[in-house]
Design goal:
Radius of gyration: 14 Å
Order of helices and strands: HEHHEEEEHH
Strand content: 5-15%
Largest sheet: 3 strands, antiparallel
Shape: globular
Bound molecules: iron/sulfur cluster
Helix content: 10-25%
Number of domains: 1
Low-confidence stretches: 1-7
Distance between the termini: 21 Å
Number of strands: 5
Mean pLDDT: 88
Strand order of the largest sheet: 1-3-2
């Protein structure tokens, strides 16, 4: 079976974002990344319901059995895409720890805005996610 790949890429954004996150929903660049980027720790899993874990996450089928947020192509599967121009996180209050560490205006944020997607400066990738 051929896996559907969403080739839609977002354009780079220039300039500093609002430090309080007022620009984030219209930006969403750090929520665009390859599959198996956003990992969940035990405390992250505890914030999600069983239905959300089933629908929005995927568990590695081999040790160390890390759990990740699902992707839809290049987009995080937890994005609410009901408005094509907006990128709110559907689980914002329960979002994983790694997502909370991406501060507006941080190096990671600025790299994501410059690229149009999450870059390599992100700190929360699992080191063996590609196994
Ligand atoms: S890249 Fe920066 S401005 Fe854009 S959504 Fe992420 S934290 Fe917010
Ligand atoms: S879980 Fe939410 S904040 Fe984290 S990458 Fe996905 S949409 Fe963005």
């Amino acid at each position: 079976m051929v896996q559907r790949v969403d080739l839609l890429m977002l354009s780079p954004l220039h300039g500093e974002p609002d430090p309080d996150g007022a620009d984030c929903v219209a930006c969403g660049r750090c929520c665009h990344h390859p599959p198996h980027t956003v990992s969940l720790r035990e405390e992250d899993e505890a914030r999600l319901s069983a239905e959300q874990l089933h629908r929005l996450t995927v568990l590695m089928d081999h040790p160390p059995y890390f759990r990740f947020v699902r992707n839809e192509g290049t987009r995080c599967g937890a994005l609410d895409l009901s408005d094509p121009e907006q990128y709110p996180c559907a689980i914002y209050l329960a979002r994983p720890t790694g997502c909370r560490e991406v501060e507006p205006g941080s190096p990671c944020c600025m790299q994501a805005r410059a690229l149009g997607h999450l870059g390599e400066s992100v700190l929360f990738k699992r080191s063996d996610r590609t196994r």
